[in-house]
Structure formats: C-alpha cells, structure tokens
Amino acid sequence: MQRSFRLRSLLFLMVFAAFFSLLACATAPPGGNTNIDSLLTTAERSSFDETTRYADVIELMNAFDASSDRMHMTTFGYTYEGLALPMMVVGDVSDASHEAVVNSGKTRVWIQGGIHSGEACGKEAMLMMLRDLALGKHAEWDDSLVLLIAPLYNADGNELVKVDNRGSQNGPVAGMGQRPNAQGYDLNRDHMKLDSPEARSLVQMMNNYDPHVAIDLHTTNGTRHAYHVTYSPPLHPNTYTQIDEMLRGDWLPTVTQQIKDKHGWDYYYYGNAGFGGAARGRGGRGGRRGVSGGGAGQAQGMQVWRTFDHRPRFNNNYVGLRNRFAILSEAYAYATFEDRVMASLWFVEEILNHAATNADAIREIVTAADQHSIIGEKLAVRASFLPSEEPVEILMGETEPVLNPYSGRTITQRLDAVNPVMMLEAGTAQPTETETAPAAYFIPVNEQAALTKLELHGMIMEPLGTEIMIQAEQFVIQSSTEAERPFQGHNERTLVGSWEPIEVTLPADTIVVLVGQPLGRLAFSLLEPRSDDGLTNWNVFDRSLAGANVFPVLRTSEEFRR
Fold first, then answer.
1. CA–CA distance from 292 to each of 116, 296, 306, 467 (Å)?
2. Which of 47, 87, 185, 545 gives the lowest tally of CB atoms within 10 Å of its CB?
3. What is the pLDDT of residues 131-164, one digit of tens each?
4. 460 phi and psi angles, rounded to 5 deg
C-alpha cells in the first residue's frame, strides 16, 4: 500500500514517542495522577462525534497505569507500520510479564478492541473500563481474574480516519479508521495463515499468556434488527463440547438476562436475516456457506437467522480450536455511537462478572480440554450451517436515513421499534466432511513454510532423531483446484482425495507433530489436506503440490512415541 513520505514520517515519530512513553510508565510511581476520573476519551470529549487516535490511547493508558497498583502497562507486538500494540495487565499480579500472570493461578481473560478499526466502540469501551479499573472499581474481580486488555489491535488502520469509512454506520460522524491493516489485510481473516505482524503478535501473546477466555469486540453490519449487541461463541464443530455447552447453556443466557434486567436492552446471538441458500457474509470470496437441511422452512418461504461460518480464520472460532472460551461481540451499527460504546462496555462487564463467579469452573473445563485426546475421533474438515428444527422469535427493527453533519452524506439511524418475527435459526455448524484424527503427522524438514507457520501457532513438534520404518498413510490427490479470484493475497486451494496405507522409511530429520497435544484440534485443522481453512487452503504447500499426485505430509493412526 502506497503511503506518502509525510505519513510515514509521522508514524515513525509516533513509534518512538510511544516507545519512550511506555518506558516512562514503567518507572512512574503509582498514584501519580490524582485526577484520573477527569481523564476522558476523545469520544467522550467530543460528545461521541470523534474516536480516539493512537497517541491518545497510549497517553490514557499510561495515565491509568501510573495511577493504580493493579495496572501494568506493556505491549504484545507491533503493527505492519511498526506501531507498538499496547496491552494493560489488570489484577493482583506483581508485573506485566507472562510468568507473573500465568503463575498467579487466576483465570486469565483477554479483551481486544479495534480488530476492524472502523468499528471503534470496543476501543472506546475498553478505555472507559480501564479508567474505571484504575479508580478501583470492580476490585472483586482481582480475587479470581487477571485481565489482559488491548483496546486497539489494528492500530495502523485506526489512524487512517475518513468520514466516509463504513459509510452507512451511525457515527462517529467525524470519521473513523479503516477495516484492513496497512497491508490491506482483514485481520479477522488472518488467524490461520498469519500473514500479518498483528496476527503473529496476537498468537504469540496467546502462546505466552495463555488466556482462558478471549473477548473480541466489533460493530455489526447488515440486517436491521432490534438488538443492541449480537454475540457468538466459537462456531467450529470441532470445538471442545463443554466449552460450547457452558457458553450457550449458562454464560451467554445469564449475561443477556442481566443486561435486560439492568438496562432494558436486548442482546442475542449474531445473525443476519435471509431466505435460505448461500448469502454474502464474513467469509472469503463467495461469503457465507449455505444452509444445510433447511428445506422445510425454505419451502414455506420462512426467513433464516444465519450466523457467520465456522472457519477458524475468524478470531472466536480460532480461539475455540485452541481449547479456550471465546466470545464475539457485535454492537449494532445503526445505534448511536454512544449507545454502541455503552452496550459493549456493559456486555464485557457482565461477561467478567460471570467469569469471576465461575472462574474455577472455567479453568477446570480448559484443563479438561487440553488433557482430552482427539486421536481416533471423527472430526470435521468441512462444515455447513445447521438450522433449527423449529422457528424462533427474532426481534427485527427499523431505521431511518439521516444526514452526517460532517460529510453531508446519508447515514442510517436506529429507530426505537421492535418487531418480533418467527424464523429458523442457523446458529451452529454441522460437519459435511470428516476425517478420523490420527496419532501423528510427519512433515518433511524441507517444508519450511509449513513448519514456520506451525511454530508460530505454538505447536509442539520435534524431529524423529533416528530413521524409522512405520505403517503410515499418504494422501492420494484426485484433484487440486485453485480459486480464480484472490482473497487476502491468496488463491485458496481445494484438494480432493483420500488417505491410503503405506509402509515407509522416514529420515531422522522428519518433523513429528503429535495430535495428542493440547493444540491437537488446531493441528488437525492446519494439517489435514481437505481442511477448509488449513495450510493447504492458504497455499502453504503449493510448491510441493505442483504436479504432484500425493500430499507431502504423512500421518499415522498407530500410537507413536519417539
């Protein structure tokens, strides 16, 4: 992406300013700012016409850090343009190091805003929450939780403010940042391929701090509904069952009811209304996957409340395959900017209230997930929507066009109207193609691109050390197709074929990935050649696949020990 010399110079100066600002905060005495309650975000100071820029985010976070012993400022990586990504560790820990956080024994919660920087409500909400925490509010959380709060993930995109970004969204009317990062990548499509430094930074944070819970704050698009926030747990069908059961059976319903009781606002599972078939959505080119098994409802002309698809390129689905709790929040785009900020803040508060009460149970489920071996289980390599047997009540809303006073262009404003409509709900995914999870994968040492990606994800892998003969399986390719149009810098690849037995002698430098490890579900999704979001899909094996009739990675279903 072309940038002017002036902009690059400005960003360069901002990097150094941020660095020295972060350095200063590390030595600042606690309690240094006695007027912390008077520190307002740019959104608050502008009556929610504007959103907070990077330099002001850093300044506010430094002030909060200096004011409270429970705040510990650090960074978790860098953007494409070199901006340090700020993170506040909040809780009863000695410092911001991952050693101190992990050794605390408390339930760790990651909260990120601004993965799409035009969706600015999460950033503003988390800055307001940090101020509250600096003032001593929610002190009871410290007994059981450590918070890792990163208000601004797509920092480069945040600085590219235009009044017509997200043109129909109801504010901030003075402009907002852009959806992609400085590379032009959608960071919420990069969790498997890890092409951006931001995504690599995020995954390294997960490897180091290992949060039990991850909350990802967005602003929605599309359907005119009546919910102030829609949300989603992990959607991949390979997610550990107890994680899904706790989120859908208790956690999210409880939070929804608490917000309704306290604030009178309706929250519900993420969706968009449509009439069957495939719909444009949050996936790759071609968008959302079609609904399976919804023939009866479609025949009756019934609408379907359809979520986004299951693939782990999306943050909450990726986190789920790491055996961790994940919650996506989508504030309603056509509500006022102030309402979206408050809706996001209240949502996170109630999530954390519930997490604090159930902290032990959360850690127990995560531990059980890590200890559970998927070897021999039938797991999805492809999936589709699973519609409900019976219709459910969805609250639809109404909007009206209004003029943006800064641009003179039309934006869309929520009206205070609620229209219940009965629809089928396609809110979960079911496998359409499966494979039996093997005991191990064997990767040739010359597949450096794949090995690098696996290492970035935190996969445990080692060389054989000695040459061995083993009963294995090789994937025989029947067809290999490449998408005609690029998506996120890739022409996605689809392999068709099957695993066949083979006796093979493996060299000593062959790399082994054991599937019985805690990240086994992720390893399976990354390495299975038919996986709809794996390394094959993202062209990582293309060099070896050129003209080949077998896949370069072998696997074995036999128990394997080095």
1. 30, 11, 11, 47
2. 47
3. 999 999 999 999 999 999 999 999 999 999 999 9
4. -80, 125
The closest alpha carbon to 39, from 151, 153, 168, 130, belongs to 130
pLDDT of residue 559: 81
Cα(51)–Cα(127) distance, integer angstroms: 11
Do residues 174 and 156 make contact, with C-beta atoms less than 8 angstroms apart?
Answer: no
What is the residue whose two structure tokens read 């039990």? 212
User: CA 17 to CA 22: how far, in whole Å?
Assistant: 9
CB proximity list for 296: less than 8 A, separation 6 or greater: none
Pairing state of beta strands 410-436 and 462-463?
unpaired
Q: DSSP letter string over 451-505?
A: HHHHHHHT---EE-SS-EEEEEEEEEEEEEEE-SS-BTTB--EEEEEEEEEEEEE
Domains of the chain as residue ranges with CATH? 5-283+296-371 (3.40.630.10), 436-556 (no CATH)
Chain segment 259-285, per-residue pLDDT in tens: 999 999 999 999 999 975 443 334 443
Alpha-carbon gap, residue 436 to 551, rounded angstroms: 17
Cβ neighbors of 419 (< 8 A, separation 6 or more) are 226, 395, 396, 397, 398
Say if residues 107 and 359 touch (Cβ distance below 8 Å). yes
Residues 210/108, Cβ–Cβ less than 8 Å:
yes
pLDDT tops 60 at residue 384: yes
Query: 69: how many CB neighbours lie within 10 A of its CB?
Result: 9
